[in-house]
Amino acid sequence: MGLGSKKLSVIIAIVAVTVAAFFGVWFYHLYNDYAEKQKLIKETADADSKTHITVTFMSTQSSWSMTIADLIADFEEENEDIDIEYDIISETGFYEDTLNVLYARGELGDIAEMVNPSFFEKENLLYELPDDITYAVKYVSAYDGKKYAVGTACYTSGIIYNKDIFERYGLSEPKNYDEFIEICETLKNEGVTPIVLAGANSWNLSVLLNHYFDNNVLKYNQYWMAEMLSNKASWEDDDVKDMFSDMKELFEKGYIDTLWNNTTDIMLPELMVNGSAAMSYTCSWMVNEVENLDDETNLGWFYLPDSNGQTITDKEVYSYWTITKECSEDEDKLEAAERFLRYFYSEGVYEKTCANITGLSALKRDCDIEYTDMQKEVVDKSTEVDKIFTISLTNSFVPQQFRSYMFELIYPLLEGELDTDELCTSLQERWEEVLEEEENE
Length: 441
What we know:
alpha/beta; D-Maltodextrin-Binding Protein, domain 2; six-stranded mixed β-sheet; 18 helices
């Protein structure tokens, strides 16, 4: 391990402890507030006329969880007849897998944030949302003609970088993929970690994979996923192998920090601010995370170009709000849940939420969102890319049980324990098994 790698290892360890302490304190106070609230509810249950509902949401990024916690408090202040208990899911794996566990325990709650609601829709576990809510949102998830989930906000993905480091070594934003590789090589030779990746969170690893999926597969065949679902394409296709090979190259050449699989997304802001790494391929929400830590850091953003200089990225719905079928069986709870969703999308409230997470609007109405200069750079550049895809390897087109299996194998691939051909053969075999299982259900 080189001097630069040893230094980064120490820094990551320090950051991990610091971040853990910060969020430990935050979650400690959050839990204490929650516990006191629960105690008060229990003591006054007989005399309390409030309607109590629960909201389950994820803490993939701190700005989102803090924003929703504050939004709930504001909602309760304006709606004194409603009390909301919330459960913040902070697992490092895929959030949807945790939701399945909660469902099995009967703890899904009344309102649940979901990334891929398709499983719950098919199992008739969700309530069909009213037209006034679904009509307001551009992105709606439906099954069998019924609308069960509405998008919260959209995000885009690209590279956030430290401009001071780029200027120090005479670097500029790449005009094509070869220039990007040259930048990585220059930084590596200078003892600077080119790219930091929060691989401890499967979600963040999927963001990088989806970039190569866009550029190696969808760019040549935008109907590839539909062909996969009808067995007209294969995980052993050359374009798919190129996708994994190009991604793996970053790891083989030492452009990704050596402790990537131990780095969490809540550690990324500190690593970018203190100059431990020059770049990170991440989602637009990370801009807000970094600026919250230090708004003086000289940051830039670019969309990674292909070999011909074409920029391709994805624009995906961050998540969806749903109301559970169980909630709909209680008239008072259902009314309270619907009121909460209408509040979430109301003018002023929704704009503030998007600004807090560098989110792109998912609503049909015009939204005047007050972005910071850095956030505005991301949003403006997102309108200048050559092509945007809304299909990814982590959305509802991919069966949930297959997705989890795929990421179990990607880690050993990137760590050099599995080659690309072996990976693709295993994925094709598992894909066929999953499709057959779904047909037999």
